[in-house]
């Protein structure tokens, strides 16, 4: 039996003269021809070693098709560490985005209040309840937010300031979407879809602010627009967010009487909430700070 080694030139597209395959051709006794070829990165293998090298390279390639258990565990551990670091960051970013959106809502609603007052002789819209001056809204007159009454549903498109904003989303903080308004009568789904987050200072209802005063720590003084509450993000679920389990938004009216425990600020934004004052500036404040402001008398307008 004779063996003949044949060098085959590179395949189409290779550089001229580069040997790509080594073939061994052997003619057997019966005239049969056996051909063994091996392609290993352009190297010419020593005679007789083709088959061993081919088996070895195949074994190496197969051994690299998957990850080892240790490699998988390391990858999983890295992913878990990254998740533990990044998820709180994303959560805080979402909370801050909700708070900023809430502040923007209040600012735009305050502009709607101003435009309404300009069109109505300087009087503020109705909150839906008796005012500081003892005025009562006319029968069936819309309040600012379209509330149908205490503990009832609301349709903000029917509110008196809606023509000035024309956007339902401005009445609801993003953090309150699908969040139960526990004091509203209805099914759990209806409570979660309550479209109102903000309540109006009831002492300003139907009043001309320039004709009002305040009583701070027992002393009557001029009303201070920079400290007079206009709208506040009221507690939505008193059971979870305030000191009074019965408190919670139910009609868009915020009674600013010192010590009144039925209407309270929310705690949804970093243990505080958002507020817009009569002069139009919107801010975030801690829950305790807001309660102190109310109890000092800055929010309750009175007739001098």
Give a structural overview:
A hairpin with a 2-residue loop joins β5 and β6. With about 300 residues, the protein is of the alpha+beta class. The strands form 3 sheets. The chain has a 5-stranded mixed sheet with strand order 8-4-7-9-10. The protein has a 3-stranded antiparallel sheet with strand order 1-2-3, covered by helices on one side. The N terminus is likely disordered. The protein folds into 2 domains: about 60 residues, no CATH class; about 220 residues, no CATH class. It starts with a strand and ends with a strand.
**Count of individual domains:** 2
**Which residue ranges are poorly predicted, with pLDDT under 50 across at least 5 consecutive positions?**
1-45
Can you count the beta strands?
11
Order of strands, widest sheet: 8-4-7-9-10
Radius of gyration equals 38 Å
> Termini separation (Å)?
125 Å
Strand content: 15-25%
What would you call the structural class? alpha+beta
Please work out how many helical segments DSSP would assign.
6
- Average pLDDT for all residues: 81
What descriptors fit this protein?
304 residues; alpha+beta; 2 domains; five-stranded mixed sheet; three-stranded antiparallel sheet; elongated
């Amino acid at each position: 039996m004779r063996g003949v080694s044949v060098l085959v030139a590179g395949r189409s597209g290779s550089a001229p003269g580069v040997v790509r395959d080594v073939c061994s051709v052997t003619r057997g006794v019966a005239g049969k021809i056996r051909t063994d070829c091996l392609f290993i990165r352009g190297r010419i293998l020593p005679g007789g070693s083709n088959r061993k090298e081919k088996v070895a390279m195949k074994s190496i390639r197969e051994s690299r098709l998957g990850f080892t258990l240790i490699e998988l565990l390391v990858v999983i551990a890295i992913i878990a560490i990254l998740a533990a670091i990044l998820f709180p960051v994303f959560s805080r970013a979402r909370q801050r985005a909700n708070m900023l959106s809430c502040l923007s809502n209040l600012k735009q609603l305050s502009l709607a209040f101003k435009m309404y007052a300009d069109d109505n002789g300087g009087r503020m819209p109705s909150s839906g309840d008796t005012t500081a001056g003892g005025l009562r809204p006319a029968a069936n007159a819309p309040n600012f937010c379209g509330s149908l009454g205490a503990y009832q549903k609301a349709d903000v498109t029917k509110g008196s300031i809606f023509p000035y904003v024309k956007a339902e989303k401005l009445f609801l903080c993003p953090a309150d979407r699908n969040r139960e308004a526990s004091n509203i009568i209805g099914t759990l789904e209806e409570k979660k879809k309550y479209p109102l987050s903000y309540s109006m200072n009831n002492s300003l209802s139907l009043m001309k602010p320039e004709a009002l005063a305040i009583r701070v720590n027992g002393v009557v003084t001029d009303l201070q627009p920079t400290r007079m509450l206009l709208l506040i993000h009221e507690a939505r679920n008193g059971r979870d967010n305030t000191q009074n389990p019965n408190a919670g938004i139910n009609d868009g009216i915020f009674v600013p009487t010192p010590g009144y425990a039925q209407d309270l600020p929310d705690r949804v934004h970093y243990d505080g909430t958002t507020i817009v004052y009569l002069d139009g500036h919107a801010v975030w404040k801690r829950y305790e700070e807001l309660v102190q402001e109310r109890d000092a008398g800055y929010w309750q307008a009175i007739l001098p």
